[in-house]
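step 4 of 6: structure.
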Amino acid sequence: MRNDSRLSRMLHVLLHMARHEGPMTSDEIARMLGTNAVVVRRTMAGLRDSGYVRSEKGHGGGWVIEADLEAVSLLDVHRAVGGPRLFMIGSEHPNANCAVERVVNEALESALNEAEAMLVARLGKVSLAELARRFDQRCRSTF
Amino acid sequence: MRNDSRLSRMLHVLLHMARHEGPMTSDEIARMLGTNAVVVRRTMAGLRDSGYVRSEKGHGGGWVIEADLEAVSLLDVHRAVGGPRLFMIGSEHPNANCAVERVVNEALESALNEAEAMLVARLGKVSLAELARRFDQRCRSTF
DNA sequence: AATCATGTAACATAATAAGTATCGTGACTT
DNA sequence: AAGTCACGATACTTATTATGTTACATGATT
């Protein structure tokens, strides 16, 4: 698999739901994302457990957004979908016996931790509402 | 596979070689890393192509470090081993048709690019010599 | 000539997101 | 009450990529 695109996909879905009246079915969402309804349900389950969306069965059922757009950040969504590991690179043996290895790993992990802290801060600062506003602005500016 | 540990491993090896007289065989290195000689050759090939190490066949052969420790940064080594992708997360469809998707992906990629720039800058600022000095200091400080 | 060490190719393994098929369950419609 | 719709859950498959492993060829040294 090339990339973990769960965060990207879920943000895409949440913003659509925010501008959509009534529930959206997993099938509709799947077509939107170019994937499968089962994948949608699987990924949205995390959002449901976090209370950002609600799901309803039966006729007229589907997914409804419940989140306060101002209160939910991209970081919140990242965590809701499982908060996967961010970096591809790293070290085996975090606590190595070899002194050389320890020096190397401390240098690497320090750099990685700093980058992760920045990324987390950055994602935590942007709300769903902010993204929605950017979308609205972009739409208006085409006139 | 959990993590791409090629950078970590190669730094570990380079620092050992910097403190080691004469060539080290792939087998010695493999035992040091807890892996296989073929994996060592495969990974070290990148360092050889970048001119950081030299390999010699036959009796008394093996790997010799050639890098100027002051001139080679962790970033250089990262690139020499293939410069793999740094982040696990990202978006499919960098240039989506959907305006919502574009807004989402721009926000994500902006944050990722910023974190990547910081990480690259951080790795580019540390030289092999600096790591070697840290190692030497740590050894001295145990007396 | 024998031995040692690298170079290379081919194949296996592990981890994980994603894709797919299937069946169960609850809810709404008629 | 029956039928349909949509989610829930399970199981299996696929794709990707670093890593592990086996085997053999090539070149250098003794």
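step 5 of 6: annotate
 - Residues 1-2, 23, 25-27, 37-38, 41-42, 45, 55-63, 88 of chain A lie near DNA strand D (CB under 10 Å from a C1').
 - Strands of chain A lie at 53-56, 62-65.
step 6 of 6: archive
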